[in-house]
């Protein structure tokens, strides 16, 4: 009887051992298993991902990292999905393999309105491998801001071009926005920012650009908080090239304009400038627009009903307030002898315009970004924010207008 009991106990013990082994093998065979012949370990204990799995509305200043308390990470793959586009997030493991952190744009902050997926594989100190998959989403802002860039992408412009960003709303955190915009050139020269109020940020070098310079504007504004609850939208790169040098000097008192190309005088043209009651600004101005023909109405620039000309030929804008250098077919013999305009600089032309007139010739030899400097007028110097008038500031004054001095 005792023998039978002992046999039954041994059989039970053997069966228990078999069942235990089968249970372990079965556990390791499952596709979602995370224990291997040892103490069970949850993936979230072995592979720790920040932000937590399934987190929502994660702020842009949140930290993204993957780490293990023991062992080492074998691989980490992170994907950012934003605006229906997937992009791998670059990153780097620490030397001991215990922590992964992003490099590139995500190192400075998470993209907003995005979903992130993290797939990590680690090996513990006993050689056991484990994988973990997590996802999280970031905060979706209700309000955005953008910057409109001058000049146009891939343009060839004159040596006086100033990079201008006009924002669609007021920027309170100017230093943060300024740091998110990078303007570089080849060959390299110092380039400095200057704010005009809260909605405009300009960049220029100390002196006019050298011909052939390639300029790159990197806008890393996306998810930068420009004002409380208002975030940037753009992550773009613009480039433009500096063409030949051309600086034209208007002498309002002598009624002439000297056109200097690459250091050589190529022509002197007779002009008419602003009459004594409506003088032309002095100072350095930059060509920002060119129109074969345009309408000019005195009421749009603060005058009464003095004029409304529907077909002004060869119109070249110099200021935002309405100063143009343009063709003029109605002022008779004033060119070279009298100032009769309402503040613009006029060149002789014919109705409908002609490339054979001084106005047509100058128009055909002008680039956006060329400099026109007016001297000899009795008016004040043009304001630095009136068009691209920043060249009227000295370098020290210009640099003082930046917000991010550190």
UniProtKB/TrEMBL annotation:
Active site: 326 (proton donor/acceptor), 344 (nucleophile)
SUPFAM superfamilies membership: L,D-transpeptidase catalytic domain-like (SSF141523)
Residues annotated as signal peptide: 1-27
GO molecular function terms noted in the UniProt entry: acyltransferase activity; peptidoglycan L,D-transpeptidase activity
UniProt entry tagged with the keyword Cytoplasm: no
Domain L,D-TPase catalytic intervals: 246-375
InterPro entries named among the record's database cross-references: Big_10, LD-transpeptidase, LD_TPept_cat_dom, Transpep_catalytic_dom
Name by which UniProt lists this protein: Ig-like domain-containing protein
Lineage: Bacteria, Bacillati, Actinomycetota, Actinomycetes, Kitasatosporales
